[in-house]
Amino acid sequence: MQGLNDVDALWSAEQAAAASTDFAELHAAHGGVLWVAFDPQQARCGLFFWRDGCCRELTPPGFSVRSRVYEYGGGACCATELGVAFVNEPDQQIYHLPVGRSVGAASAAISPDSSGLAAEAECRPAAPTKHEPLALTSRANCRYGDLSFVPAWQALLAVEESHEVGSVVHRLVRIGLNGKRDVLVEGADFYAAPVADADGQRLVWIEWDRPSQPWVATRLCQRESGQRSRVLAGQAGEESLQQPRFDPHNRLWVLSDKAGWWQPACIDLDIGLQAAPYDHALAPWQLGARTFLPLGDELLLTRFEQGVGVLVRCATTPHAGMTAESMLGKGFTRFRCLAADSQHLYCIAAAPDRLSAVLAIRRSDGTLRILAGGEQPLPEERLSRPEPFDCDLGEGERCHGFFYPAVACEERPPLVIFLHGGPTSACYPVFDPRIAFWTLRGFAVLDLNYRGSSGYGRAYRLRLAGQWGELEVADISAAIATLAASQRIDPQRVFVRGASAGGFSALRALVELPQLRGGASLYGVSDPLALRRLTHKFETDYLDWLIGDPERDAERYQHRSPVLQAERIKVPVIFFQGGLDAVVVPSQTEAMVAALRQRGVAVAYHLFADERHGFRQAANLAEALNAELTFYRQCLG
Predict the structure, then answer these.
(1) Omega into 211 within 30° of 0, i.e. cis?
(2) Residue 111: how many CB atoms within 10 A of its CB?
(3) CB-based contacts of 548: which residues, under 8 Å, 6+ apart?
(4) Cβ atoms of 159 and 146 closer than 8 Å
(5) pLDDT of residue 20
(6) Are 59 and 99 in contact (CB under 8 A)?
(7) Parallel, antiparallel, or unpaired: how do β-strands 518-522 and 573-578 relate?
(8) Nearest residue to 465 via CA among 541, 545, 553
């Protein structure tokens, strides 16, 4: 493996942590584009406005744009006619901020970068806004998310999460720009994606009740002016619907997995579009997703072809479905937060060779412009590109993922297996600064989309029901065998790592697979029963779906709880935990650490007192990467 000092000069843990900057919440408005950018150096999310080639931050000091509805948030901002409304992270209240008509600087030229893409020339940021945010809500026990603006009402739609005595209640509310609050819909356990048509006469939303999860069964509901609410789709409880949208003709569209994949359907025309058999969305862990956009007589949508994201523009007709399909965004492999105006299509995109970027795509000819991000941090010769991976599991089943070869390593390298959280989430073939950290130091990486991951259809996603802790371990074992048989890795030097639910899967693999050399759990679940007792409302029934009823299936919990099977782990494990974590509380991780230490297993434990569930501060991210690398090297002797 390469010398640490040489590699550190090229790509240190500090650089990898700083590169975890990301974008979200993209909106085309006010003659420009609004987005939220996460800055790991400050551990905050700022609201930015781009227009005429210049970009400025709108959020003043002390504000951070992030929702905590359902703990995972989403939909934390939206454009209004005069400005932008946003959820402030510290107090979870909604604020309104005017957007001026002048950005205070001249337009920047557009010039091609080294890849041939059009990129923004350097532009001096405009002066900070002089406006102060106006609070629209002041309910200390409430959180807000999934914001949308209804011009006909001059008001916002939002999901409200009210933390009341002994319970958490969710509602759909209307918040006027004067601060007036009205409850519109209540009674279901959960709500998402409220949106109204152009004249404000039709309100639609997604709802679901316990014990369902939103990627298993939801309902599409509607209430017209002066009428009672009714269910438009999902009555049978065997369909997951998400992202309702009205097109410019006031026709209602939605994504439905009734045919086995999340695909667009026009409710008002009662047609599905016979789209390609791919998922056009991922499991809705967060609110506010926009992975398809009806634009009148055409659709802009993204889909996942064997885990690889593509961006597609296609014409639509009532009888012929989707026609005249064209691909956009060449070179990028993940797209989200789709938006549009009369001249451009916009999205947040990621690629295997560059950081996340905000893209503008000219509607007339598909020309790309990078408005923000998109830097290429590593030269091509030091970059490990993702290779599609799948392996046979028998009985017609396969698991998927992406393999990253070690850089400049002649021997069969050690392997680090990345296990995503959720577990109904996914990994993508895009530049990940953490993966680059490992491949540059002589490790190969397998980013595994085990059975249960999103992006491969409903059957693959629901395959994990009752099987969590068993199925993904079988996938890990098969993946190691496949890579070893092709001489891609050294099977005696394999590590597993995962965060949250991925941490549980890593610990389960360490219990069941003695050939592993070691592993890492980042705020991982080690005691499912403890998590079930303490978890938040959104996931209250999730463990019953993943493992089973704790009384009826008590033996199953006994067998699959890492903390109860600690005596079977014989190899070193490193743990990372946030002191403010309310999902996997510190005591759960510390019980696992104590159980291993009592049995003489080599354990390292790093507690970051000011982190929550998912580390955000650059210094802590870098410290964790360096500690994990040192730990693995000690395991390798």
Answers:
(1) yes
(2) 10
(3) 466, 556, 557
(4) yes
(5) 85
(6) no
(7) parallel
(8) 545
Query: Could you tell me the domains of the chain?
Result: 380-635 (3.40.50.1820)
- DSSP H or E segment with residue 160: strand 155-164
Show the tokens assigned to 227. Answer: 């009428």
AA letter at 356: S
Token couple for 214: 């939103």
The tokens for 122 are 């350097």
Q: What counts of helices (H) and strands (E) characterise the chain?
A: 11, 38
Could you tell me the pTM of the whole model? Answer: 0.92
Q: Return the residue matching tokens 């059957």.
A: 459
Whether 22 contacts 357, CB under 8 Å? no
Q: What is the token pair recorded at 349? A: 């995109």
Nearest to 499, CA basis, from 583, 622, 415, 404: 583
Rounded Cα–Cα distance for residues 353 and 330 (Å): 13
Rg, the chain, Cα only: 24
Q: Are strands 77-79 and 83-87 parallel, antiparallel or unpaired?
A: antiparallel
Under 8 Å CB-to-CB from 58, ≥6 apart: which residues?
Answer: 34, 46, 47, 48, 49, 84, 97, 99, 129
Residue 433 neighbours by CB under 8 Å, 6+ apart: 11, 15, 16, 17, 19, 20, 355, 377
How many CB atoms neighbour CB 148 within 10 A? 16
Residue 536 or 492, more confident: 492
The two structure tokens encoding residue 96: 């309104």
Confidence of residue 225 (pLDDT cuts 50, 70, 90): confident
Sheet holding 292-294, edge to edge: 292-294, 298-305, 308-317, 321-328
The span from the CA of 44 to the CA of 344, in Å, is 29
Query: What does the block give as tokens for 44?
Result: 């905050």
pLDDT value of residue 116:
41
